Amino acid sequence: MRVFVTGGTGLIGSAVVAELLGNGHSVLALARSDASAQAVEAAGAEPLRGALADLDVLRSGAAQADGVIHLAFANDFSSPEALANAVAEESAALATLGEALTGSDRPFVTVSGTPRAEGRPSTEADPLPTDGPVGGRGIAVTKVLDLASRGVRSSAVRLPRTVHNEGTGGFAGLLTNIARQSGVSGYPGDGAQRWPAVHALDAAILLRLALEQAPAGTAWHAVADEGDPVRDIAAVIGRRLNVPVESVPPETYGPLGPIFSADQPSSSTHTRRALGWEPKHPSLLEDLENIQA
């Protein structure tokens, strides 16, 4: 299968490109810079120059492919406005890709975060939130799944709070960066809130399986660790960086404060049974031991 991938040079995307190529697929990857194009070529894929906001380029990429995996996101959490702009840019891209694939019966895999369920781990049957800082993303992904009624084999792989590799990535990576800058490995509140996690190489396998197998309109959970308390995550970060570990106000994290403070364990029982996915790479707490001071 020839697969058009957005976000193919990021932590997750580079793992996905390698996973696809290693399983007999060819890859056309969106590349927004010369450096990204060179990275795509070095990985053995073909670059398509353009950014996520270049909707005509996205249409061209979808037209050249047998399937699409969308991973690109601006990841600008510097302010509520920046986050809203990132969500709006992605929403327009998803709508464009979906329209290009309508009526083709081709697979279209996108990603979101895992949802929150009160008092229990969330499951694949729980809806995505449509309010809050990233509610717009939930709306856009739900529209992608609705394309199942319009001749698109659409699916969504829900990624946990942290997708990690070699001690970097995800919200745990943000905590590490903040600890380096502030000299304190902080956690909001009492730190008992739980974050699910997955290794990037395991997430890449699930994204490939969704492309190849997922029925139209289905959601899947790329969750290996159901939920680590944030204070445990902060403790490893503090030890590796040799900085104190302390509770800090949620406001320390700006627009991410409410998200960082939420207890959000998540299950992948259905995903494992239905798609035969079995994570095998290091857990988050094990992988954080790779942090360099």
TrEMBL record:
GO terms for cellular component: cytoplasm. GO terms for molecular function: aldehyde dehydrogenase (NAD+) activity. CDD domains: SDR_a7 (cd05262). Residues 105-135 are annotated as: Disordered. Residues 3-216 form the NAD-dependent epimerase/dehydratase domain. InterPro entries: Epimerase_deHydtase, NAD(P)-bd_dom_sf, NAD(P)-dependent_oxidoreduct. This is SDR family oxidoreductase. It comes from Actinomadura barringtoniae.
